[in-house]
User: Fold this.
Amino acid sequence: MPNKGAVQGTAAAGQGRAAAGQGKAAAGQGVAAAGQGTAAAGQGEAAAGQGRAAAGQGVAAAGQGVAAAGQGVAAAGRGAGAAAPTGAPLELIAAALRRERRRTGLSLTEVARRAGIAKSTLSQLESGTGNPSVETLWAICVALDTPFSRLLDPPRPHVEVIRADEGPTVSAAQADYQATLLAACPPGARRDVYRIAAEPGRTRASDPHMPGVVEHVVLSAGRALVGVAGEPVELGPGDYICYPGDIPHVFEALEPGTLAVLVSEHT
Assistant:
């Protein structure tokens, strides 16, 4: 018969081993829990890493936004540059200044004195050089008694052509006679009448007459180029033309025996 104490000791030992096993199991669970904690910590670090990466991407996106904004500013700058004015039309202004000064008959010195600028400045402007300011051009316009707009948008010469079979005509009752009105005389005007005889060859180039002069030409025979220099009109017998006589103008016969009547009108 087994010893009761021995049996109890064996049982106690078994229970101890069981307890030890449970302890090991508990330790294993603790290790597993620690492992899970480590895993969780790793996941947390990974999440933190992802957060940092996301933050980095956000910074990069912000940087791209700043770069895009910079490009937008640069593009706006380029657009502003493209929209900037190219400067005053110097050749147009120069031609207008020469024309208006010639119209008044004033010298460079006198216009410069009246405008309060140096004569050399006015000379440069009339030659198409320099960089005129609005104030300078305005002072010159006052001195020349001319609107500022004429420097940038000069009036085109008024030229009228009436062909031989055109114009308002009235007939006589007792004779084969017709009269065609070509131009009515303005109030206060004076007209001088000339007969012109010209032959082909050199062109008759006329310098500008006094301001306000208008010339009327009726071609009687032959053919001729008549009118403003650079834009003359070809006329045949019976044709009429009028044009400003205070700018350069020409008369060029195209056929022998060309005849015309010229009326110079002064206001």
